[in-house]
């Protein structure tokens, strides 16, 4: 039972972390290029990947720099 409880807590922690990261990614994409989120099939993760491929990020003069 102890091991199952530990696993359940860890799952809850990881789930909370994933939700927070998704929230931050969505917020950053909305600041950077909100129209991307209107495209069917492009979500926050895809938009962030496009942002990285475009070379926008830390030190490149793009905003925001949080991704």
Write up what this structure looks like.
This protein is mostly helical and 67 residues long. The protein has one domain (2-53). Helix content is 61%, strand content 0%. The protein is built from 2 helices and no strands. α1 (2-32) crosses α2 (44-53). The relative contact order is 0.12. This is Transposase IS116/IS110/IS902 family protein.
Number of helices: 2
Q: Give the class from helix and strand content and strand pairing.
A: mainly alpha
Order of helices and strands: HH
Taking the alpha carbons of the first and last residues, their distance comes to: 39 Å
Proportion of strand residues? under 5%
The number of distinct structural domains comes to: 1
Low-confidence stretches: none
Oligomer classification:
single chain
- Could you give a short account of the major beta sheet? none
Shape: elongated
The total of beta strands comes to: 0
User: What does the average pLDDT come to?
Assistant: 85
Task: Give Rg in angstroms.
Answer: 16 Å
**Helical coverage, percent range:** 55-70%
Descriptors:
elongated; single chain; 67 residues; Transposase IS116/IS110/IS902 family protein; mainly alpha
């Amino acid at each position: 039972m102890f091991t199952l409880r530990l696993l359940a807590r860890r799952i809850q922690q990881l789930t909370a972390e994933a939700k927070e990261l998704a929230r931050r990614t969505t917020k950053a994409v909305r600041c950077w290029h909100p129209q991307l989120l209107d495209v069917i099939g492009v979500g926050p993760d895809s938009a962030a990947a496009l942002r990285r491929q475009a070379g926008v990020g830390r030190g490149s003069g793009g905003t925001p720099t949080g991704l």
